[in-house]
Amino acid sequence: MYVPTPTQGDPQQTAGPPWWLVIGPGFAALIGLFLLTVIYRFDGRETLQIELGMSHESLLLSGLVAYLVAAAIAFPAGLLPGARFPTSVTVPAIFLMLLGALLVAFTPSGALFLVARVLTGLGAGAAIGVTVALIRRLRTGRGATVGVLAGLGVLALAIAPFLGGLLSDATGFRVVYLVAALFAFVALVVAGIIGIVTMVTAKPSARPMPYQPQGPPLG
User: Does residue 75 belong to any structural domain of this protein?
Assistant: First the structure.
């Protein structure tokens, strides 16, 4: 008679990721949202546009449309594998954002600005995808996590033109992107550390327990 072999670790197989695993990609997603709207200012004086000699249409296409298209393309790339391999997707995504921010900081022309915005959009879209994938798998605290990140995301979108304008007036628009690159580097370090901690603390896979027959042996 066949007797099913009991296994250990079944709860771990169905458990979702820990909430702190969302910190790395969530932080990167907030930086990406900040970089989306920081190219504009509430007072209408576009320092970046003037220094690079770009028209309003060029700034719209290169700075906003290209960013959104790139983010939309990269979003599924972060959403689909992000739940299983969050660090492997998040780290390259943040690196693209870091590279894009540095390119904008040192760009001499509108053509390189377009390339930089595409790279930043790709990284932001992938980071947002990983964040959404992890939140969907949370077993506890999902509502609170969504509320916090949504609130911070709206704040990042709204405050970016204001802070970017203040910093541009004081030091120039390039410093804005150097500061953004610094925050992206911090997010890269945080995501890497969290990935290492997750790998070290991961429990071994379930192993079958040897079946021990009960009762006297059959003669």
Answer: yes
